[in-house]
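Customer escalation, tier 2.

The customer says the design service returned an amino acid string that "doesn't look like it belongs to this structure." They asked us to rerun it and document both sides in this ticket. The original structure tokens are below, unchanged.
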């Protein structure tokens, strides 16, 4: 009997404890509000001379750090570094400049917020943890003009856009828009209608088509416009610099990759994980046995070739470093049909063109240099086969 009484008392004590815990936690399903929320921008497009206000709400007083990042996740500006802010609505402004006081180039920049409470607990706002990279819709129209075309496209939200021209089941021939950031709206880009070498009228080729792709930018991205267009050079220079801050960067290449894997079911574009400074494929030439670039010989007519003809692909000097930091393959097309490929490109690289499988006469040859991240560059030239 005493044992039963002790058990009942224990159960009552346990039930009472549960009741206290439940009361402390609140109703079932309820949770404490986030320490940082209601993050918004006064404007998503920033031009020189203006400033974008970043507004946020704190659930409790905290030491706040706010940072600005390039699209390659390099910190370029520390707006606040452990500054005390009260509970409620707060804001901090960015004027589009980096920590050295220079205006950043045109691109889409990211923000992060970090709050540390009086107990030393840290809370972060990282837009890449829950947004960015999802494939998005784009509406495209090709409008013929007196010279070339206007490429008009419409996007419904801030995105990064890529528009290429090429041949269906054939080579890529021209890049019209190369993963550039755009806000919601309709845009028009002029295109001369020629391939990257300026000699082929792409849309007059059989099977010619445009391939538009785009993916969403992380929430609250700030698009800088009206500045310089030298982002790639700027990003490379930033790699050697360290921004002074007592805190650590919230957004890094590693954190973005991890969050992208967690959100893979939302349809993350593979191009989202390619560094913006690496979206451009290296430019290259294809030279004959004498070292002359074949495209430059178009004015004198097709290059006469026979049997097994050696060609040398060589990446331009200014792009060699980028070439070796990636992995590329060479795809060869003849008359817009896949002819051959080399899975591991080198520079210089000697490719022997077997003309014995081609009919005598004039043929268009296109080399595509293709990176694992989808980067593509094109080089075309004309040959005349004369096998006996």
């Amino acid at each position: 009997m005493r044992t039963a009484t002790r058990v009942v008392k224990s159960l009552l004590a346990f039930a009472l404890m549960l009741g206290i815990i439940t009361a402390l936690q609140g109703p079932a399903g309820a949770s404490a509000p986030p320490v940082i929320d209601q993050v918004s921008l006064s404007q998503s497009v920033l031009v020189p001379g203006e400033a974008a206000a970043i507004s946020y709400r704190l659930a409790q007083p905290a030491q706040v750090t706010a940072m600005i990042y390039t699209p390659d996740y390099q910190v370029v500006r520390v707006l606040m570094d452990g500054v005390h802010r009260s509970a409620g609505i707060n804001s901090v402004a960015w004027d589009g400049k980096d920590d050295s006081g220079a205006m950043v180039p045109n691109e889409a920049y990211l923000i992060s917020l970090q709050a540390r409470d009086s107990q030393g607990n840290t809370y972060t706002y990282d837009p890449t943890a829950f947004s960015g990279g999802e494939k998005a819709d784009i509406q495209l129209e090709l409008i013929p003009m007196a010279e070339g075309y206007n490429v008009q496209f419409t996007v419904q939200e801030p995105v990064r856009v890529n528009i290429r021209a090429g041949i269906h089941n054939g080579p890529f021939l021209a890049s019209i828009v190369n993963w550039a950031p755009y806000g919601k709206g309709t845009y028009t880009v002029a295109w001369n209608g020629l391939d990257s070498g300026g000699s082929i009228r792409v849309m007059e080729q059989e099977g010619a088509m445009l391939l538009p792709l785009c993916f969403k930018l992380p929430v609250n991205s700030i698009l800088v416009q009206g500045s310089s267009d030298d982002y790639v050079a700027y990003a490379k220079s930033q790699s050697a610099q360290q921004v002074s801050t007592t805190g650590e960067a919230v957004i890094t290449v590693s954190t973005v990759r991890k969050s992208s894997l967690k959100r893979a079911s939302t349809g993350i574009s593979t191009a989202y994980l390619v560094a913006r400074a690496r979206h451009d494929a290296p430019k290259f030439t294809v030279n004959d046995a004498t070292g002359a670039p074949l495209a430059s010989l178009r004015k004198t007519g097709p290059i006469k070739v026979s049997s097994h003809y050696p060609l040398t692909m060589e990446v331009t000097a200014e792009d060699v470093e980028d070439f070796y930091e990636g992995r590329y393959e060479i795809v060869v097309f003849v008359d817009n049909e896949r002819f051959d490929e080399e899975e591991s490109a080198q520079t210089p690289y000697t490719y022997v063109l077997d003309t014995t499988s081609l009919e005598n006469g004039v043929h268009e040859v296109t080399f595509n240099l293709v990176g694992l991240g989808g980067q593509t560059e094109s080089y075309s030239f004309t040959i005349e086969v004369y096998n006996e």
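Tier 2 assessment: The sequence is consistent with the input. Helices lie at 2-25, 231-238, 253-262, 320-324. The longest helix spans residues 2-25. Sent an explanation to the customer and offered a walkthrough call.
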